[in-house]
Amino acid sequence: MSLTYTAGSLVAARGREWVVLPESAADMLVLRPLGGSEDDIAAVFPAFEDVRPAEFAAPSAADLGDQRAAGLLRTALRIGFRSGAGPFRSLASIAVEPRAYQLVPLLMALRQRTVRLLISDDVGIGKTVEAGLIAKELLAQGEATRLAVLCSPALAEQWQGELREKFGIDAELVLASTVSRLERGLELGQSLFDKHPYTIISTDFIKSTRHREDFVRHCPDLVIVDEAHTCVAADDTTQGAASSASNQLRYELLRRVSADPDRHLLLLTATPHSGKESAFRNLLGLVRPELATVDLESPAGRAKLAEHFVARKRADVREYLTREDGLADDSLAERTAFPSDRWTKDEKYRLTPAYRALLDDAIVYARDRVQAADAQGRREARIAWWSVIALLRSMVSSPAAAAQTLKTRSESATARTAHEADVLGAPVASDSAENDRLEGMDVAPGAAETEDAGARLLDLAQRAAQLVGPAEDAKLKALTGHLRKLIAEGYHPIVFCRYIPTAEYLAEQLEGKLGKKTKIAAVTGTLSPQQRLERIEQLAAEAAEDGDPAVRRVLIATDCLSEGVNLQHHFDAVVHYDLAWNPTRHDQREGRVDRYGQKRDQVRVITMFGEDNGIDGKVLEVLFQKHRQIKKDLGISVSVPDETASGVTDAVVEWLLLHGRQGSQESLFEMDGHQESFERIEREWSSAAERERTSRSKYAQRAIHPEEVAREVAAVRAALGGADEVRGFTLEALRDLEALVLDPRDGDGDFTAQAGGAPAGLRDALAATLGGRLIEEDRPIPFRTTPAIGRGEAALVRTDPAIGAIAAYVLDSALDANTPGPRPARRCGVVTTDAVGIRTTLLLVRYRFHLTLPSRTGERQVVAEDARLLAYEGMPARARWLDDDAATALLAARASANTHEQLARNQITRALDGLPDLSAHLTEYGTRLAAELDASHRRVRKANEEIVRGLKVVPQEPADVLGVYVYLPQQPVPLSSGAEA
């Protein structure tokens, strides 16, 4: 007759001890190794395998450790927890330590039965992490079973990597390039959205009719939409027809997805307004239909919005949980190391005589072509207009781009109508801020209007090809100087270009010109999104392999990298080689490096412009200076509406064709016929800025008070440990394990360690997380106090894989007295110390809890763990128990005198023999702890009565006593004895 095991009980099988999980049945046990993670779960069949009840063995009096044994074992145990008992089911199992401010959206989500949030935190604050936290938590609680992320195809691989590496969510990519392979693996009638529970989907791919209908029918119960502002269209839109139609298709898709009131929906965007109030309202309507029409001027309306909307600037969270936030003290204060500011400078250059002559002739050609086309009809005029813009933009970019454009047919030349010509040609000039339009936009446009370029264009192309190199290309020469200066000051710059030929030209020309220790790579739209990331990682790896801190990285890129891709770990300066025709594009470029995780306090930004090319100076004067002033006044960037930027650049080109380069010093606002247009643009832009300011002040996050965040942060740190504890543990453990540790004690907390002398088991574990070559060659491993780490580095946070490997080794060696080599932690210890006045015993106790967590999909049974320190004075039979703070304080006690070996053995034996006398108190403490956990779960979900109603937290008896440590008071030593202290 087989035994029946309850969830949470211990069994012995396969040579180790396991915890029985709630999914078990009479004929099959689902087990997790004691102290193991969800990845180690196994199924065991008692009918075929030997399974027996197990009790956690008491510590051995023969295996004594020193004064640090208790602290090391406790921290190793807590770092290893992947199934914490607190209300946040996922925090113990993710590979990122969220900032306190990133818990705010999570707290907001847990108070809603169906989660509907618009997360509009500023660029670089960490919206992806905030969304990932919510997704992981909802999946862990059973509130959601499937997930879909809708994003630009260029960002799909990055989303996949973030979810897998930080949150353990392995999502399938659903893109135009992958769907055929995925569909081949489907059964008859099966949807790929049913087969793959977690997917990352291209918004462009899914908006097509066939795929849209399939997605809507089989849509997961949790959907995240990245860059959500591109998925709504303004009611009064005046933007380009193609952009408007594209947005309308996405909006229709999301409207149908959001129509299911039980579907969780997270909308992410740093620019919820995008200059259009109606678009903002449509976005709110996706969150909740009533928000589309709610009166946001009334307190009640703003309170309703606050339940679903969070929008914070960097200044709001740079210092968080301080007295200024209403807290009593700064004990939980968290300071986030965003770059303090951008160092920006506009650097001008002047054309060489030969280049100036070429540009003048190109302008003359353009003027002649436009005048001739005006007489031929509206269609011909629009084709000529877009061809001329392509010609002029390529001409001021580089000789390579100019030569390519002059020999290529204009895309708009195939248009059958003037409207079609505008649809095809507008992207050439728009520099739209919408990232779905970045793919393919770095291809050099065509200027020829027939298959065979005319003689004048071919002549211009040949002249352009002769201007390559720094002798005739003053712009290239100026760039070389700027890069040399940045490199000399220790920076790793990214150079952004508009066109592929320009980027390839720069990479070729700069090779060998920036010093032997500078590595250069180019990334353009010729590479797939995945290949782009691989090229960047390859550049970083090549620089790191040299092991020389003087090696510098220079990346030449087009705008295929200007949105979404995070580059702050590898680069810290931006050079705008080609001036974009929309300042928002520059913000996007700079935002790739100026974000959370950037190690530099100050990011360098250089904007290059042609002083005498007739275009750059005017764009800089009209668009960029206004944009910078608004940013200075508001502290945030306000997107420039595409139609506003296009209106300015159209006027610039018209003026250039009329006046040539020689009129370049005149004020653009004095042009006849354009003053009224510029005044309208000024009004629209100022209005957009005012709406953004109002949004940030009126509608800022107020649903969660900092005190509520502080309470949960304190509880999480108490259960899982904080950064200081992790750093101290790692330092001590590595030293005890005979690694060579170099701690400079320079105040930043970073240190390095060489693992060559450590036990083979630890070396193998570190090689798996940091790279085999690093360990084999015994290179120094940098341990950083910031989560922003590079290749071959470890972050001093409990969820870092390298820290986890060290903790696992310390814990396993403590539990196995036969482990060869050094064992930093032990399960017993006796310390003589002046920190106590009476014999005091410290217990490290592991509690297991059986949690019943109701959800919308039914009850979920979970076994969770918690580690606590309990301490008592005197003998076990008459124990006087100390409070939690006093017990924790014993970890800091240090030996003030030697303890005789036999005395130590007698004292620990007495303490171990007295453990049965403590069982009643340990049980009572577990019951009290279960009540506290129950209250914590209810507090976090206080607005969700349905979920709270069936919640249960039951302690599993008996608790496991992992460690017993006796602290003896130091006895006065007679002066005549001569005994040593």
Care to describe what's here?
The protein has 981 residues and is an alpha/beta fold. Helix content is 42%, strand content 16%. A 7-stranded parallel beta sheet has the order 9-10-8-11-12-7-13, with helices on both faces. The chain has a 6-stranded mixed beta sheet with strand order 6-26-30-27-28-29, with helices on both faces. Strands 16-21-20-17-19-18 form a 6-stranded parallel beta sheet, with helices on both faces. It starts with 9 loop residues before the first strand and ends in a 12-residue tail after the last strand.
Please give a handful of descriptors for the protein shown:
981 residues; alpha/beta; 7-stranded parallel β-sheet; 6-stranded mixed β-sheet; 33 helices; 30 strands; 42% helix; elongated
Rg of Cα set: 33 Å
Give me the side-by-side strand order of the main sheet.
9-10-8-11-12-7-13
Question: Can you count the beta strands?
Answer: 30
Number of helices: 33
Helix content: 40-55%
General shape: elongated
Mean pLDDT: 83
